[in-house]
Write a structure and sequence with these properties.
This protein is an alpha+beta fold.
């Protein structure tokens, strides 16, 4: 029987955490527990890993790129990224994809492909983020302005000239090579990519 990616990740985290309790006793904490400590711990447990998605919509050998220039406190400030967002309660990746694309662009996707899972780790954020990566070549509707930045159709050949995250260049190459479904780990210290692994192997 085959199991979904999120089932495997979830059970792996649960079993691994229980196993580590044999060696590391998380309930032995130096200091005083108060209501603020409990709330902070609950936030870490509930929001310790975040699920998101990014999609690169295609038209006439171009990608729809989002230049993140609107928000002041934005981890992606001034970077060019795909259209994306975070999951809401009980959403599947596809439901999140369709909702966020509609909200950010005004377009309704009619054809899309799940290309891979990207695990982001950053000392700026403090938790891992699992990003579902899509491309889309079918949509309908009229495009609207986006309050998170400027939307622009960019020729694929010019993508690498943009201010991209270094790890994004890796998965853009994988998409361009039409690589099979992949798992890519990207770890950043500040804005510097210090580790990249494709299916467990260093890139």
């Amino acid at each position: 029987k085959k199991f979904g990616t999120f089932n495997v990740i979830g059970w792996g985290m649960l079993i691994g955490g229980i196993f580590l309790c044999v060696f590391i006793k998380p309930w032995h904490v130096i200091g005083m527990w108060d209501i603020y400590t409990v709330l902070a711990m609950a936030a870490v447990i509930l929001v310790g890993t975040i699920l998101s998605f990014t999609t690169y919509m295609e038209k006439d050998d171009c990608y729809l790129m989002l230049h993140r220039v609107s928000k002041k406190n934005d981890v992606n400030k001034d970077k060019w990224i795909g259209v994306g967002g975070h999951f809401e309660k009980d959403e599947t990746p596809e439901e999140c994809l369709l909702r966020e694309v509609k909200e950010e662009t005004g377009l309704t996707l009619t054809s899309y492909q799940f290309r891979g899972i990207v695990t982001f780790i950053s000392d700026k954020v403090g938790h891992a983020e699992y990003m579902c990566l899509y491309t889309a070549d079918g949509y309908e509707g009229e495009m609207i302005s986006c309050d998170e930045g400027t939307l622009e159709w960019v020729p694929k050949k010019d993508i690498y000239q943009l201010d991209l995250w270094e790890g994004d260049r890796i998965f853009h190459r994988l998409i361009a090579e039409n690589a099979p479904f992949f798992s890519l780990k990207l770890r950043y210290e500040g804005d510097v990519l210090v580790e990249a692994k494709l299916s467990g192997q260093p890139v």
